[in-house]
Task: structure prediction
Amino acid sequence: MKILTTILSLTLLLICTAAFSAQDGFNDIQCGTDIPKSLIGHHTSNEKVVAIENRHKNLGLKDLWSEEISDRFSLLSWMICGGEYFLLEDKHSIVRDVLKFPEHSKQSPQFMGACEVNGKSMTGTVLAVLKNEEGVEKLAQAFQVLEQGLEGRDHVGGKNFTMGDIPLGTFVYRWNALDVKRPKLPGVEAYYRRLQQRPAYRKHVMLPLS
Result:
């Protein structure tokens, strides 16, 4: 009798555990409805991401990234029903707030970090989509100066690669990686092609922009 009771208890425990693990915070979501409302107040799961994504293929669920932003909160980014959503999760794995994030691109990149207003640092973490056309124009002017400086030279110091090409080469890569309209600068373009021939440059500098 004791053996039977133990087996039944273990069976019930397994059933309850399986049912509990299936509750991952996304169960109440239906595409076309109020997704933030369906998430706020729900517990998220510590299961493997692939298991959660497979369970909700009908939502097009995809984990994008996550980051701990304080000792109390983490920020999770999920693709849900074709849109990107930020989930603010507390240390008990409860979703406290949800924000649908606007579309972004290399031209208008996503930004998360500290911000200054009138020279003063703002408290907290800022989430934004950046678009600064005036900044792009100023960058173009700076690269016009570089174009003049490279006249008759393979590198900034002359024929050979020097330490000065390391920081400058990083800026040249980022300038070319941005989805912005750039002026025709034959000298800078040739300089960039020479930099790309260096294995270390391709490995350590030519990384995807985030």
About this structure: Residues 1-21 have pLDDT under 50 and may be disordered.
